[in-house]
Amino acid sequence: MRTDPPDELIMHLEHDQFVAETSRPVARAALSSRTIAALWALRVFVVLVSLMVIYTFVEQLS
Amino acid sequence: MSAREAVAPSPLLPQPLLTDEDTARSHDRARVHHARTHRKRWYLLWLLVGPGILAMLGENDGPSMIAYASDGAQYGLGFFVPFIPILFAMAYVCQEMCMRVGAVTHRGYGELVLQRYGRVWGWFGAGDLTLTNLVTLVAEFVSIRVGLSYFHLGAGVAVALGLTLVVFTLSGGRYWRWERIVLGMALFNGLFLAAAILVKPHVGALVSSFDFAPFPSGSFNTLLLLLASTIGATVTPWMIFFQQSASADKGMTPGDVKHGRYDTAAGAVLAAIFGIGALVAGAALLAHGGSGIQGFAGAGFPEALKHVAGGAAGAVFALGLIEAGAVAILTISASTAYAAGECVGVSHSFNSSPRGAAVFYAANVGVALLAAVVILIPGAPLLSIVLNANVLATVLLPVSLVLMLMLANDRGLMGAWANKRSTNVIGIAVIAFVGLCGAAYGIDSFLQTVHLVGS
Known about the structure:
The complex is a heterodimer.
Chain A: H1 7-10, H2 19-22, H3 33-61
Chain B: H1 3-7, H2 20-37, H3 41-48, H4 51-59, H5 62-75, H6 80-105, H7 109-117, H8 119-150, H9 155-170, H10 175-186, H11 191-198, H12 203-208, H13 220-232, H14 237-250, H15 257-283, H16 301-309, H17 311-344, H18 358-376, H19 382-409, H20 411-414, H21 421-449
Helix pairs in contact in B: 2-3, 4-6, 4-10, 4-14, 4-15, 4-17, 5-13, 5-15, 5-17, 6-14, 6-15, 6-19, 7-8, 7-17, 8-9, 8-17, 8-18, 8-19, 9-17, 9-18, 11-15, 11-17, 13-19, 13-21, 14-17, 16-17, 17-18, 19-21
């Protein structure tokens, strides 16, 4: 439910704390191609190791 | 111009309309404002503690305490008594960043990653979180079940207790109420310290263990498993999501960062002390065939402690396991709910009503329900799930930590609150250590499983 904002309540919240403000997305960061490549490399590595852990887990069951 | 300034409205625009969430949060902030202006320092601290202690004590969960007790039962105190505080110091570095980013941006980890670095990274993070949380929640229900079995109560009671707590704590529609209930429960993590005292440890051995004895003996893979599972008992993806989102939900601001650091540090110290308590209690079994009691095998710890140190020690340890599992179910379910709401882009606050934040509440209850169903499946491999929960969390952690480090360094978001060079150096060292241990265990275990290397 939305109501008119009582001043004594508003004064205790920072402007960017209001739901109306936090609902607005922050601007997208411009990542360098090197950073994106590093993130993908880490992602692929982590997925591969996770698959190894899951494979080991399934093998231990059988 | 900063990222947040880029979307900030003109001061000439009318004030935003208040939602119920704003109203609840502003009431909490009014008390903080009153305590600060009237210099009520202890009351201010009381108002601002919460997310840090909950993240740290929430991570002292069933599998973690069993991991510490296992370490003690198999290897004694030597290596682990100094190792556990080091791990919690590492956890402090990570969690302080989460708290700071949440207090400065007023946004959760999931939504910031998604908005700032793209949907792919946001959904990857949420996927990792959901997977590790589900596995860990199953382990928490098993932990409660193990504790209850000491009192001759079964799996049905464990499920009913866990789900009742989730629904009960959600029922108030206020972040403050949820936080205080869970905080009150979390302090019973101290039962592991009581268990340690009840086993009457040799004080001299405890003090000399700080000499940092050499690494425990055993096969290379066993050592890696010990490292990976002990790290997974200290720093995990859910803690990152939880503390940042909870700090934002609590309404923390940059002016509260100092108290947020006290909160996080207090959580780390308490968690380390209670973790060492579980280790010391487990170490009482070292001279009594403790090496045979690994993980949850035979649900042995409370019963074994009863035979070695008396019924009180066994009962306190069993109650500790119930508490550890129950608190972790609440915090881990909450982290899943925050991530779901943030990634879908809908209301995600304990200060919203269930009708206003249906996805948040449904995810909170749903993930706990799903885990509860698993432990009721006859013949489900619960022991294997428990033993692998911490390891999987360790393996998936580096990506979450890297993105957290990027957020904490993002001057467009953080301005003057961005990381200092020293924080980055320590943060990168933590990520490298965690990544190396998790990957080494995963790869070595896999190579052994496919018989490419000998065990």
